[in-house]
Design a protein that fits this description.
Number of helices: 21
Strand content: 5-15%
Distance between the termini: 59 Å
Shape: globular
Helix content: 40-55%
Structural class: alpha+beta
Radius of gyration: 24 Å
Length: about 500
C-alpha cells in the first residue's frame, strides 16, 4: 500500500475513534434514554472504514421485489452510509422457531435476528445472544431518541440490555382481540363481534353461503381472547407457552394448565373441532394454514392491535373487496400492557459484526427518509404519498412495517379505512399496566426441568389445547406427566422470582 494511502486510512480510523468515544466515554451510563442523541448523524456520515456483510435472519418469504431491492437500491445506500452489505436469510413462518434455534444453537455466523419479546429471556438463558448496552450507547443514539425508555426496560435482564424493542406504538391487549373478515361478516348479515357465540354464528352462516371458507383461530394462541369472556377475572399469560398466568387484580402467579379456566378453554376448543371452526386437517400444519389465509379463506384469527392494517394487503391480493376489523370480547373489561413492544431484534453471541448490526438498526430510525426507504422502498417506484398516507405501488412485501412501526414516523396506508386506523390509534384507551410489565423469568436454574416440561407439554398438553384430544379422557395423564417432568419445580422457582420482582417494584 502506498504511503499516501496508508496516511489517509490512518486519518479515517483516527477520526472514527474520535467520533465514537468523544461523546461516549467509559463513564457513559448504560441506561438507554438518558443520553443526548447528538452524534448519530455524524456516525453515519463518516462510514466505517472496513466493508462488511451483515447477516440477518428474518421470518417469512423473500418477495421478488424485496430480493431485487436489497441487492440494488438498499445495498447501494448501505454501502454509502455504513460501508456494509445486507444479506437476508428468510425462514418460513411455519418453522421459523425451529430453524432459527438450530442456527443459534450451532453458532452459525449470523449477526442479527428478530423474534417476539417473550423469547428474549429464553435466548438469554440459552446463551444465544449478547448484551447491548455498550453498543447502544456508542452506535444507537437514534434508537434511544425514537424508542421510549420504558420499551428498553422490558428487555433488561440482570441489569443488562439484551434486545432492541424495535416497535414503539400502541400495544395494549395484544393477542387478546379477534380479527375478522368484516366484508364477509356483513355478507352474513352481521355488523360486529361481541361474543364467542357471535363467532360461532358467523362461521355457521358463512358455511351456509360458501363452505370453502373456514373459521380459523390459532390454537397455539387465542387463549387470552377467550379469557375475556370466559372469566370475570383479569388474567394475562406469562408468555406464549401458556403454562402460567398472572391474576392482574391480586398480583398472584397461577398455574394456567391446572386451572378451571384451562378446562373451559379446552372444552370450547373441542366443540369448535366438532363444529368445524377448527379444521383438524390444518391444526397441525402451520404452512397449510398460512396457505389458506393467503388464498382468502380466513374468517377470523387472533388479533394483534394492528393486524387488520397489516394483513389487508394479503387479504386483498386474494379478494380485492376484502376488509378486516379487530374486536375485543367483553370490551368493557380493561386491556393490559404486558410489553410495550412485542418486537425484539437481538444480536447473536456469535456475531462477527455486532457494531455494524447496531449501526444498521440505528440507521433505520435516523430519519424519516431511511425509515420510509427500507419499509416502503423507492418513492415513485414502490410507493407514493397520497394525502399524507402511503399508497403502495407494488404488492410485494419489503421489510415488515410492523417490526419497526414508530410513533414519530408512522404513516397510515392509503388503502386502509380511517375507522380502522382510528381503532388502532385509540387502542390503549381503557388500558392498564400489567403486573408482569418488566418481569423476566430467568430459567437458568431450572433449564433442565423446563426442557423436560416443554417436551411433555408439546406431546400431551398441546393436543388438548388444540381441541384434538378430549380433556376428560387425556388431561389427568397429561398433567401427571407434566409434574413428573418437573413442572412443580419450575413453578416454585417462577413464584420465587416473581415475589422478588414485586418487592422491587
Amino acid at each position: 500500500m502506498k504511503p499516501a494511502v496508508i496516511g489517509i486510512v490512518a486519518m479515517l480510523f483516527a477520526s472514527l475513534l474520535y467520533i465514537l468515544y468523544s461523546n461516549f466515554g467509559p463513564d457513559a451510563s448504560n441506561k438507554p434514554g438518558i443520553q443526548n442523541a447528538k452524534s448519530a448523524d455524524k456516525q453515519v456520515e463518516d462510514a466505517p472504514a472496513s466493508f462488511v456483510t451483515l447477516k440477518v435472519i428474518m421470518p417469512g418469504d423473500l418477495s421478488v421485489r424485496m430480493g431485487d431491492f436489497v441487492e440494488n437500491e438498499l445495498n447501494d445506500r448501505l454501502k454509502k452510509d455504513l460501508n456494509m452489505k445486507l444479506e437476508l436469510t428468510y425462514i418460513p413462518w411455519s418453522n421459523y422457531q425451529q430453524k432459527l434455534e438450530l442456527a443459534l444453537s450451532t453458532g452459525e455466523n449470523y449477526d442479527l435476528f428478530w423474534y417476539g419479546a417473550p423469547f428474549v429471556s429464553v435466548y438469554y438463558t440459552k446463551g444465544y445472544i449478547q448484551p447491548l448496552d455498550e453498543l447502544l450507547n456508542q452506535y444507537g443514539q437514534e434508537l434511544i431518541k425514537h424508542i421510549p425508555d420504558e420499551n428498553f426496560k422490558q428487555n433488561r435482564i440482570d441489569d443488562k440490555l439484551w434486545a432492541i424493542p424495535s416497535q414503539a406504538f400502541t400495544s395494549a391487549g395484544k393477542f387478546s382481540s379477534v380479527m375478522v373478515r368484516q366484508d364477509l361478516l356483513e355478507k352474513a348479515s352481521m355488523s360486529e363481534i361481541k361474543t364467542i357465540a357471535d363467532l360461532e354464528l358467523f362461521f355457521k352462516r358463512m358455511q351456509a353461503i360458501d363452505p370453502s371458507y373456514y373459521g380459523y383461530l390459532e390454537t397455539d394462541r387465542g387463549h387470552e381472547m377467550l379469557w375475556r369472556e370466559l372469566t370475570d377475572r383479569n388474567y394475562s399469560s406469562l408468555d406464549e407457552r401458556m403454562l402460567f398466568m398472572i391474576d392482574e387484580d391480586s398480583g398472584e402467579i397461577l398455574s394456567y394448565v391446572e386451572s378451571d379456566l384451562y378446562k373451559q378453554v379446552a372444552h370450547l376448543r373441542e366443540s369448535w373441532v366438532k363444529m368445524g371452526i377448527i379444521d383438524k386437517n390444518l391444526v397441525g400444519n402451520p404452512a397449510a394454514k398460512i396457505d389458506q389465509e393467503n388464498a382468502g379463506k380466513l374468517l377470523f384469527r387472533v388479533g394483534a392491535v394492528s393486524r387488520a392494517m397489516e394483513n389487508l394487503q394479503t387479504a386483498r391480493n386474494a379478494d380485492p373487496n376484502a376488509r378486516l376489523r379487530e374486536y375485543y370480547l367483553a370490551k368493557e373489561k380493561p386491556k393490559f400492557i404486558t410489553t410495550p413492544s412485542n418486537e425484539a431484534f437481538m444480536i447473536t453471541a456469535a456475531s462477527e459484526n455486532p457494531e455494524r448490526a447496531m449501526m444498521f438498526m440505528n440507521w433505520i430510525l435516523q430519519n424519516k427518509e431511511n425509515y420510509n426507504f427500507i419499509i416502503y422502498g423507492v418513492e415513485g417506484k414502490d410507493y407514493e404519498l397520497e394525502n399524507g398516507k402511503i399508497k403502495q405501488l407494488t404488492n410485494d412485501q419489503l421489510i415488515y412495517e410492523w417490526m419497526w412501526r414508530n410513533k414519530d414516523y408512522f404513516l397510515a396506508p392509503a388503502r386502509v379505512e380511517d375507522d380502522i386506523i382510528d381503532d388502532m390509534l385509540a387502542n390503549d384507551e381503557n388500558s392498564r399496566i400489567s403486573k408482569l410489565f418488566g418481569f423476566h423469568f430467568n430459567e437458568a436454574s431450572v433449564k433442565n426441568e423446563m426442557a423436560q416440561v416443554m417436551a411433555v407439554y408439546k406431546e400431551k398438553i398441546e393436543p388438548i389445547n388444540f381441541g384434538l384430544a378430549s380433556y376428560e379422557e387425556y388431561y389427568e395423564d397429561a398433567i401427571a406427566a407434566l409434574k413428573k417432568a418437573g413442572f412443580d419445580i419450575v413453578f416454585t422457582e417462577l413464584k420465587k422470582q416473581f415475589a422478588e420482582f414485586q418487592l422491587q417494584h
